[in-house]
Design brief:
By secondary structure, this protein is α+β, with helices and mostly antiparallel strands. It has helices at residues 3-37, 61-68, 118-124, 176-182, 389-395, and strands at 41-47, 50-56, 77-79, 90-95, 98-104, 107-113, 134-136, 148-152, 155-161, 167-171, 192-194, 206-210, 212-223, 227-236, 240-244, 249-260, 263-276, 281-288, 312-321, 346-348, 359-362, 366-372, 381-385, 398-404. It folds into five domains: 41-95, Beta-grasp domain (Ubiquitin-like (UB roll), Roll), CATH 3.10.20; 98-152, Ubiquitin-like (UB roll); 155-210, Roll (Ubiquitin-like (UB roll)), CATH 3.10.20.90; 216-282, Resuscitation-promoting factor rpfb (Resuscitation-promoting factor rpfb fold); 290-404, RlpA-like domain (Barwin-like endoglucanases, Beta Barrel), CATH 2.40.40. The chain is built from five helices and 24 strands. It is rod-shaped, with a radius of gyration of 63 Å.
Length: 406
Amino acid sequence: MNKGNEKKWYHLFSRKLVFISVAILVLAVTTGFVSYESTKTDLTIVADGQTKEFSSHAENVRDALSDFGIHVTKHDLVSPGLDADLKSGMTIEWTPAHEITYTKNGQTVTEWSTARTVKQFLNDHHLSLTAHDRVSPSVDTLLKDTKTINVQKAFSVLLTEGKKKSKKVWTTSTTVVDLLKKQHIKVGKEDRVEPSLDADVTDGMKVNVISVKKTTDVVEERTPFKTVTHKDGSLEKGEKKVIHPGKKGKIAKKYKVTLENGKEVSRELKDTKTLKKSKDEVVAIGTKSSADVSGESTHSPTVSRGTKSEGRELLVTSTAYSESCAGCTGRTSTGIDLRANPNMKVIAVDPSVIPLGSKVYVEGYGYAIAGDTGGAIKGNRIDVFFSSESRCSDWGRRQVRVKIID
């Protein structure tokens, strides 16, 4: 064999040898790996609700979970226990614990829980919810997705709105104003709420919304008339006769009225306006005594005789009139019927000078009664009565003295 062939054969042999060595090594490794894997324990791990198959050379549950990549805390829940020996086909359940701040009706507690959802957490705490209770976040929320749980238990309140019938409502509101808002009750500016809007709501509380309205009421009222009396010598003493009937006046009173639930609770007078004035009633008071005033008729009233020096004396301008004069009615302002008593001696006077009903003595005329008035009789002026126009003409206009007897 020449050197060239020898060299070629050597290289071929070397390559085969390397190949065989590698094959042997791979076979050894593979055999070892298969042998290693075949000694692992097959497990089922349920981690936080997720199921996975896993194999481990660990001797107990703690090491198996560690191999799986789970760090177990003292608050977590593991079944079976961490020190339990592994067995082929074993199922290991790991439920992680979450730190939760739990608030119930204002009281707050922080604790660890292995519940998976908010609903499960509440069940673990034996807390049942009604349709009126409120929980935040929702009961379907995963506990790992929240740090806090807020539960507001509803309680009953007796609510009365205006004149409506009282009703029992369930609420989680903490203040009266929030309660009314959630019940869609609007409170007017003048309305009153008992207790106040900022009061705390408690179980069994009575809340009353009182509707308050303020309005204006105008009331018309009659006003009484005054009675003015005058002495009348033609009437028996003690007898009364209405000369001019009185008339009541009318006023309008403006009130500010407060209504609560439609019922008036207060009324305040704000203004008074006169719509019609009242008219005084004029009443003649009889002063006639048993002695008649001297005159031509036996039916005419009499006055007591006296001397010319008795009483107050006036100098007046005198004219005369009869019951048939223009504009005369035949009846005096004090009610004396001149047509029925044509011989009666009566004078018309200004009541501010000579009081009506006074007994007087008129110079040239005699004793008479101041029983009439007249539109032109003002101040120191009188009008004497005669039953005929001729006697009025004879009297004319003259200055006379008048003495007031009574």
